Amino acid sequence: DEKEVDTMCLQEIRVTQMSRSGYEADLKEWGKGEYKLYWGEEDRDEEGNPTRGIAMITRGKGFQVNLRGKLNEKRALAFKHHRQGARPLLVINIYAESGKQSRRKREETIDEITAWAVGTGEDFIIIGDWNCECDEEIVGNYQACGMLRAADDIDPLGCRPTHANRKIDYAMYHGDIQLRERWQEDGIMDHD
């Protein structure tokens, strides 16, 4: 279906600049050239190791949105998908700050990303590691005023906690988006 969007948003990846081409080649071979891999701005910890990375794997017509000067490229990555017979869909990968001491910075990141997305006038979905539940902090306020809707609404019983019995990995959307399925795979990480 030409209206379908096929995107996977990844957070907490630790891939060096030098290793990226190997991942891209493997994806090209596996996906028979249909999928493309987009990388967020590289971030490094105190020892100089890659950390807190984000990436998107996507298939279909569209392009990566340049966020330079608009959003923190270490915390957000965006791709605009073409949808046949419908408005474009902006898919935004979020990786908000974690920890109780980071609450103010996390709220600033979420507010910055949401305000920017609304300002584009496009239909959008924000997917990723919000590091807060969808009914707390600023995300709950956006739902209460009708600016964002929880994608989990399509299958609220099928949504398991993703970290320490809290659900902090999810999607929120705005606009004319028909959600058909929510998919979550158990993995080796502490949340996915």
Q: What does the model show?
A:
The protein has 192 residues and is α+β, with helices and mostly antiparallel strands. It has helices spanning 17-30, 103-120, 137-144, and strands at 6-13, 35-39, 43-44, 50-51, 53-59, 62-65, 76-81, 89-95, 123-129, 149-150, 169-174. The chain is 21% helix and 29% strand. The strands form three sheets. The protein has a six-stranded mixed beta sheet, covered by helices on one side. The radius of gyration is 16 Å and the shape is globular. The model has no long low-confidence stretch (mean pLDDT 81).
Roughly what fraction of the amino acids lie in strands? 25-35%
Low-confidence parts lasting 5 or more residues at pLDDT below 50?
A: none
Distance linking N and C termini = 27 Å
Shape assignment: globular
Global structural class? alpha+beta
| Total DSSP E strands | 11
Largest sheet: 6 strands, mixed
Task: Indicate the multimeric state.
Answer: single chain
Number of helices: 3
Using only CA atoms, what is the Rg? Answer: 16 Å
Helical coverage, percent range: 10-25%
- Mean of pLDDT: 81
Strand order of the largest sheet: 6-7-8-9-11-10
Question: What is the string of SSEs from the N terminus onward?
Answer: EHEEEEEEEHEHEE
List the keywords.
single chain, 192 residues, alpha+beta, six-stranded mixed beta sheet, 3 helices, 11 strands, 21% helix, 29% strand, globular
List the helices and strands and how they pair.
Layout: E1 6-13, H1 17-30, E2 35-39, E3 43-44, E4 50-51, E5 53-59, E6 62-65, E7 76-81, E8 89-95, H2 103-120, E9 123-129, H3 137-144, E10 149-150, E11 169-174
Parallel strand pairs: 8-9
Antiparallel strand pairs: 1-5, 2-5, 3-4, 6-7, 7-8, 9-11, 10-11
